[in-house]
What we know:
The complex is a heterodimer.
Chain A: H1 3-9, H2 11-22, H3 25-41, H4 52-79, H5 81-84, H6 98-107, H7 110-120, H8 126-133, H9 137-154, H10 167-170
Helix pairs in contact in A: 2-3, 2-4, 3-4, 4-8, 7-8, 7-9, 8-9
Chain B: H1 30-48, H2 54-67
Amino acid sequence: MNVRDELVAQIPNLRAFAVSLCGSSERADDLVQEALMKAWANIDTFEAGTNMRAWLFTILRNVFYSDFRKKRREIEDADGRLAANLVAPPEQHGHVDMADFSKALAMLDDDQREALVLVGASGFSYEEAAAICGCAVGTVKSRVNRARGRLAEMLALRSVHEYEPEAADKSTPPLRTP
Amino acid sequence: MSGDGEGTALTGNEPAAIESGPESVESIPEEIESMIGDQLRAFYDGVLAEPIPNSILELLGKLGDIVSGDDGDDSSAR
Lengths: 178, 78
């Protein structure tokens, strides 16, 4: 597979990462196109045999932070849509509507969302994600955990144990001393 | 602990800000973690399954035209 074919093969993954960052398919496609143009212009700097996907994700991420993120914030501030659509608690334990999940994902801080997506969906190791994000491995781990925590909070996800009646706590009466 | 640049060969205009040190890490129950993981993968896989938009295919065609001709496989030269 030559470099171009390798690049083309990564486009679906790039799009998925871009949608996660942008929260909209149209803007994600613009972001992918810009990243591809940049990648193509710098293809000489890619070392054959190294991780093409990580290289492309790094480029796309940089384009996002240097240009797209600002635009995204302007759009959000203008219509207040995301904040207005706060997620309702799941009707049934364990079930989360995909639309609600997407909204909650979009409401995460950018750095938390990208860490979660890189590790939890794109298949990168913590080390690779750290290299892509330009931060320490521990920072990626922390961001992933914070992202999960915030999602659980926004989606009102609770452990099965938390659904048990309070009686569970009172089932063991305190010992009486004679 | 310090941010030690992770010496991989990424050259996509690396980010300017290098952060160091883990922030405080709180863990959530495994059950919730796996619920979130499943949702995230379903979300991501949904996009993966979409066809590549024409606008991107057209761009690839144009980029290919720019350098087309004799560089069908020039990776070995780099």
